[in-house]
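Data availability (excerpt). The following record was deposited with the supplementary files.
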Amino acid sequence: MQSEVNGIFVAAHELKAPLSLMRQLALSLDPNNPTEIKEYQAKMVTVSERALRQVSDLTKIARLEDGLFAMEPVAVRGVCDEVTSELKYLFRSNKKQLRVKYSNHQKLVIANRDLLHSVVYNFCVNAIKYSDSSTTSALTVSDHQNGDASSVRILVRDFGPALPKDIYYKLVHNQLEAPTGISFRPDSSGLGLYIATKFSRFMHANVGAIRHRDGTSFYVELPVSNQGTLFA
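Predicted structure:
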């Protein structure tokens, strides 16, 4: 019960933040400065779109078992291209960089395209907060082998503070059951990480993290589609 209450608090806090930012932008807008109006309008649209996406994702979590999200062969690179294109302005406006590298030979995975898009999106948005002009976040897609099982790993690397051990443990052991505040990363999206975990679990994908001295890599591993060999 306590974890649910804390989860609601974290979700409310993170959804309140973009509303506060939009209010601040609106109040500081100079109506006599056309250049500033255009710039602030673009920022407000970007902020509102991110907030709407989070609300939409939370609604999807409540309906995962309603049979609305079919699993099918999905082209991994296509999804990642869509996400990076969608976030191009956000990276540029925040003076951040994202390097994309594809090394996967397996082209198709079993997933739901919409849910996978949200997983990658949340990882990338988190990376925006933890890079600067001297660092470059990275999105990499590669083949991964776990015993006899073949999968494709989508990994996003950031340069933020270390992920706390308790959050890391819950993540890699599939025990993240509610949005959780991350103490060393006050601006990090505990809500986004929770959404990514729920969607990955529904798709029977493995989600995890790698702790670095200078940041964290979050990843999702999806089973390869047997149809992938047709597109090699």
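Summary of structural features: The two ends are 48 Å apart (CA to CA).
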